[in-house]
Amino acid sequence: MARPRAHDETLRTRLLDRAGELLSAHGPEGLSLRRLAADVGTSTTAVYSLFGGKPGLVRELYVEGFQRLCARMERVSRTGDAAQDLTALGHAYRDSALANRHFYSIMFGHAVPDFTPDEQAWEQALRSIEPLREAIAKGIEAGELIDADPAEVVFAAWALVHGLVSLELSGSAPVEDEGSARYERALRNGFAGWRR
Predict the structure, then answer these.
(1) Cα dist. 121→26, 59, 62, 129, 192 in Å?
(2) Positive or negative torsion for Cα 183, 188, 190, 191
(3) CB–CB of 144/192 below 8 Å?
(4) How confident is the model at residue 179 (pLDDT cuts 50, 70, 90)?
(5) pLDDT at residue 2, as a whole number
(6) 146-170 pLDDT, tens per residue?
(7) What's the pLDDT score for residue 4?
(8) Which of 21, 144, 148, 150 could form a disulfide with 139 if both were Cys (CB 3.0 to 4.6 A apart)?
(9) Shortest CA distance to 57 belongs to which of 35, 82, 75, 41?
(10) What pTM was estimated for this model as a whole?
(11) Which domains does the chain have, with CATH numbers?
(12) Cα dist. 106→100, 102, 185 in Å?
């Protein structure tokens, strides 16, 4: 009979979520492994066992944030209508950011100045926008979007969505009861320039 794992996926996820919260609220100085372990009700040995130390924990925060984003983006059903698909992907991006805002500073904000993602972590980050690339490539092939370099359209679409979400997360967006409706209007109007 196999021995049960001492440190399971549930504990790993709890540690990553709490580490992201500590990093977002207090910066890298607030991300103490001892405090993290105490907050989650485990030992520093568990943290070291799962992540190998603080650099490994920071790397896993980065990867986890992009894995969650990627999972949301991949769950978006394709309709075959480029504008509708791009808007749905934009909503998935926003939903992921709002649900996982505590990962956002490590994913995009250089929350830990000396952290540089390794090649494997960087590939995970790039995978998260693959659904966007696919939707844009199909839209161009189908003649729904202008005949442009797909990479240029991907960059513009991502910049629009990321900018809107960043403003919302930082509290810089106008406060309205209809945040989702305002976001959708901005997406549709922004993407309209790429339609044929």
Answers:
(1) 24, 7, 7, 14, 33
(2) positive
(3) no
(4) low
(5) 39
(6) 999 999 999 999 999 999 999 988 8
(7) 38
(8) 144
(9) 35
(10) 0.89
(11) 62-193 (1.10.357.10)
(12) 11, 8, 28
Helices 54-74 and 101-108: angle between axes, nearest 10 degrees: 110
Residue 176's pLDDT band, with cuts at 50, 70 and 90, is: low
Alpha helices (H) along the chain: 9-26, 33-40, 44-51, 54-74, 82-99, 101-108, 119-127, 130-141, 150-169, 179-192
- Give the largest Cα separation in the chain, rounded: 62
Joined tokens for residue 162: 């990321």
Nearest 5°: the CA angle 156, 159, 160 is 85
56 token code pair: 């490994």
Model confidence at 175, pLDDT cuts 50, 70, 90, reads: low
> What DSSP assignment string belongs to 111-157?
SSTT----HHHHHHHHHTTHHHHHHHHHHHHTTSB-S--HHHHHHHH
Q: Which two tokens stand for residue 60?
A: 């896993």
